[in-house]
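3.2 Worked example (two chains)
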Amino acid sequence: MQKKLFIIEDDALLNDGLNALLKKHGYLTVQAYSVQGASEMLNETIDLAIVDIGLPDGTGLDFSRKIKSLNVPFLFFTARDDEEQMVKAFDIGADDYLVKPFSLTVLLKHIEAVLRRTEKSKNAVFSYKGLTIDFSKKQVKCDNKMVHLTAKEYKILELLVKNQNKIITKTIILEKVWDQYGLFVEENTFHVTLNRLRKKIEPDSRKPIYIKNVFGLGYIFGDETC
């Protein structure tokens, strides 16, 4: 099946050049030249967004935050070889990053790599002691029974599962699940969300087998082997 790529670049010459290149290599494409233009096309089903960080009416970073819930992978590029911009891009979940000018051959290889990684991730199903998570559908089952989680509960579980057997601090959970606003989350809100998650998935929430406390350090999914 052909992959559809979303090109968001305000330089019309570069945008059209990328469009022609990607079509030549068998991709379907959608073009936009601004954050507003891109926002008007959110009904499109996209496999990868290729986004310039510097846009005339905002930034590619702003746009990626706006559609974060759609789980579209992002490849950013910019004319500025700026470490701070790179860090910001990866902090919000960028899948890759290129600095202009770049080789079109290298760009194609980066696109192929991101699509391979995301395709593998979409098909991943995790199973552990009766708990099953379908990451592509964001579905959780315990002993083959569907478990309905809130968005925050699911994010906590996904974060811990993808770091299985590693201790994850409360600070990291707040930053990843509540984004930059984690600093302002009340202690009680965090614990209520975590306890609610445990009650939904643990056979006995008083003796958890999935999400365990590591005293003074944080939380761990599975057995503490780190």
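3.2.1 Second chain
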Amino acid sequence: MTEPSSRRLARRALRTALAAPETVLRRLVGPAPRSDRGHSLDLEVQVLLRLMVESRLPAEVLGVGRMRHDYTVQGPIVDFPPDPRVRVEERRAEGPGGPIPLRVYRPTGVDAGAAACVYFHGGGFVLGGLESHDGLCQALAARAGCVLVSVDYRLAPEHRFPAAPHDALAAFAWVAAHADALGIDARRIAVAGDSAGGNLAAVVSQQTRGAAHRPCLQVLIYPATDLTRSEASHRRFSQGFLLDEALLDWFVKAYLRTPERELRDPLASPLFATDLTGLPPAHVVTAGFDPLRDEGEAYADALAEAGAVVTRRCEESLIHGFFSMGGVLRTPRAAFERVAVALGEGLAAAR
């Protein structure tokens, strides 16, 4: 899959700008913000935020169409470029609302019977799709050494809750049922996702408990687990760190039909599930300057208390969305590599 030349040029220009001496960058953005835990915001992330803030309009002004365009076209500038070692194939799964587009990534050297990961993209249940996360998925498949299946679930507000979790469950079931045709091992299929996608990965792990096919591992990257947004990090990081309060309000309003009933539904907020026993091992990653930080950590705690094997890491100097910034920014790239290692090791342990 060929990447647009404009994106390559923009990525190159951003890398050049970030290669300026630290003293120059620091004069540009000023002192580093510090979190409530005493950690400084990564300098390259701070520069990126400065560039974005100067050109960003509120979601209410831009509207759904423009937000989706920008997320899909501009977001991948900081993400990984296509990897020629990864073969890409389009598939479709049967879903409750019609066919669900899937994109299958198979790295060179990954043979039939390999482990796999079903990946759910982020974007607040409103934005994103196969294209927005294409570079990330290619890189994750290559680094983890597995087949990766990206799911293009239905988006709000055209398709409100529970369309997204229903599609996620249908896609996972389809992948497991067609494991032989996909050349994967049905016993070693993980689920993973970032933000809203982490929410869906958690939901699939809960809802398939006791099923014939269930994930062997869940990798949750700054997952949205509590749509009531009652944790303290929502107040600490409500402004200035990319995912702000106004944008979260916009996402939730678009996603839920009747918030008073749905906010605490485990299909929307997996932290509210009353029974978390018997769930697959989890690797939970949060970010230190993320409003979703505390709810992700609360979910990791709840899983561990229920007896799940949980590994966790907070990338203290980073913000929400860092997982898609590894093509340009160094600290997010290192964080991405740690997630890829955890996914690969978790799939290997499931043998």
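3.3 Remarks
The chain is about 40% helix and 15% strand.
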